[in-house]
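hiii, so i know i said id send this last week but things got crazy w the move. better late than never?? heres the sequnce for the chain we talked about at the cafe, plus the structure i predicted for it. fair warning i was half asleep when i ran it
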Amino acid sequence: MPRKALRTFWRWPLAASGLVGAALGWGYWHAQTHAGLNLQVHDHGLRTERQLYGTPHDVTLELLGPANEPLAKARSVEPIGYILAVHPNDAIGNCEHRGIRAPGGPAAPGDHEDCYAAHSAWAAQWAPKVRRANVVVGSCALRDLPVHIVTSNADWWWWWVPLPHVGGVPRRYFGFTLNIDSRTCTAVGQ
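okay and structure toks below
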């Protein structure tokens, strides 16, 4: 093979490797700067014959860092009871009603996606620092509780796969769980 053809031959694999490296690098960067959250309070005071704990309603959380500094607040969305972190900027909030058709008019296109992008970028700043939490469930207020934390960044490199159940914009995952007993207003051991 002539020397010029050999130089041309190696350009394509090098260019392809560079593109793959750049795509994976972008995916890793995006996963480090955006987060998905799952906040749960397991209320052992709602125990039944069929379940160890229940999902309480009227929940407010204050998530705390290593020096017990407040990092974020969260509240339950009623009547379902799932918990969402609330962005301190009222224009963003928790994105729960973004993109939903208002009575008499359509939702703004991309409104929920824009809100969630800003919310997930904000969450990535504080979520890795959470260690403890204050929780209020109804009239029960508990301070300085341990938070069970599950984190994952294992799927960041799949972001480029063009399948709806596989790909998508990568985010780190943070799962926060608190165990309480609202009947006795106490923390429950992990």
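btw The mean pLDDT is 82. thought thatd interest u
miss u guys!!
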